[in-house]
Amino acid sequence: MCLNTRIERLILNNFRNHKYLNLDINKNMVLIYGQNGSGKTSVLESISLINSSNGFRASNLGEIVNNDLKGPLEMFGVNILLKESNNLTKVGIGLKKKIDKYQKIMSIDEKKNTNDIINNIPNIYSIIPKMTFIFQGTSEERRNFLDQMIFVIECDHRKDILNYEKYKTERIRILKKWKVQNEEWLDAVEKKMVSYGLIVCDNRRNFLKQLNDNLEIVDKNFPSFKIHLKGELDQLLLKKPAVDVEEIFASTLKKNREKDFLTGRTNYGANKTDINVVEKKSLKEAKTFSTGQQKTILFLMILSFIKYLEKVPCKKTIFLLDDIFSYLDNNFISLVLKKLNELKVQTWMTDVKGDWIFEDKSYKAIIDKINIDDKRFKVN
Ligand SMILES: Nc1ncnc2c1ncn2[C@@H]1O[C@H](COP(=O)(O)OP(=O)(O)OP(=O)(O)O)[C@@H](O)[C@H]1O
Ligand SMILES: [Mg+2]
After folding, report:
1. What is the best residue among 40, 54, 75, 371 to mutate for testing ligand 1's pocket, by most ligand atoms within 8 Å of CB?
2. Pick the CATH number of 1-122+316-380 from 3.40.50.300, 1.10.3720.10, 3.30.450.40, 3.30.565.10
3. pLDDT of 230 over the 70 cut
4. Torsion over CA of 93, 97, 98 and 100, rounded to 10 degrees?
5. pLDDT (tens digit per residue) in 106-153
């Protein structure tokens, strides 16, 4: 069961095309509708910044500041009022500029304490149009898709990945600066990489087991699929005890120093995890299915994830569903919304018209329907 964390108010100042936008919300389901280019995706993007350094569009942060902003950067900002039980928390998101680079800054109840931030903010899980191409996409996209789900279930997964990335970057920096001569320092950094890397892989393996178990029961009318982990390190963990893998991981990093220095990247580790989705009977890979079938496979995975959410003592979560009505089947969407509503997960959706909401009377009472064209403060 999920804690009912929800956004009660969202205020945008100079965020993309929104000079000023103030939304008051009092329901668990929110539909933002309006014409193309009215700024629907931008609203969800602003929420996705809660726990992402540059949002679900992976934007260059300079792009999210309104083009016409003439004043100081302090005039840009996202203010979110969160409600959990009867507690209200104010989240402030802004930007600061370091030379020519922008960086996200965040405050909780006007304090910039990072521990508070990590403990108080909800997980934001987004489903965006790009995901329908996940099986044709890069391994990084598939890895992110998997990690996004784990962040909701396993609080520490985000921290484990950040730590792994930190030491991975540090190792490449040392290799670039001193090649392989700085043995002791490299040994220490690689040791950290190994311990965080193995935790990250463990989280992924444990989560996938659950996702696969739930995938079995999602829809009996559809062929059965299984999700496999594809990375070399992940495969090794399936075959050998963790202590052996730890040794192999450490020695491979050592052996690869020259190669990693020359290529400028880490050629072995938790950063190489990928997933392979296979139909159980024919062993056909998801990417060989038709576009429509691939969307169904994606939907099965998302539904399996939501089914898993039903079982865990759940974390604070908010779902963002951008434009899903234009690319996912209506029956699926109904099923997902029904489940999310039962779980009391606040869910933000976007659509150009949102007519379908009135087709089903049961939605009317539970959805806040916001015409963004009416809400925007227009300067011209
Ligand atoms: N920094 C910026 N300053 C001003 N306008 C911007 C900025 N960045 C993007 N825009 C514009 O903001 C508008 C809103 O974009 P957004 O993607 O949020 O629209 P949307 O309502 O989701 O559209 P669609 O229905 O096509 O998905 C677009 O016209 C875009 O060009
Ligand atoms: Mg959009």
Report:
1. 40
2. 3.40.50.300
3. yes
4. 130
5. 998 887 766 666 666 889 999 999 898 999 999 999 999 999 999 999
Buried b (16+ CB within 10 A) or exposed e, 133-168: ebbeeeeebbbebbbbbbbbbbeebbebbebbbebb
The model's confidence at residue 362, banded by pLDDT at 50, 70 and 90, is confident
The per-residue pLDDT of the chain, averaged, comes to: 89
pTM here? 0.91
Residue 326's identity, in one-letter code, is: S
Tokens matching residue 379: 């300067």
Which has the higher per-residue pLDDT, 115 or 289?
A: 289
Instruction: Please tell me what DSSP assigns to residue 282.
Output: T
CA dist 117 → 98, 187, 233, 278 (Å): 22, 33, 32, 39
Contact 295, 127 (CB under 8 A): no
All residues at 6 or more sequence positions from 319 whose CB lies less than 8 Å from its CB, including other chains: 125, 126, 127, 340, 345, 346, 347, 348
Q: Which fold has domain 131-312?
A: Glutathione S-transferase Yfyf (Class Pi); Chain A, domain 2 (1.20.1050)
Pocket of ligand 1 (CB under 6 A): 16-17, 34, 36-42, 63, 65-67, 323, 352
Q: Whole-angstrom Cα distance, residue 232 to residue 221?
A: 34
Q: Which ligand is nearest to the CA of 17?
A: 1
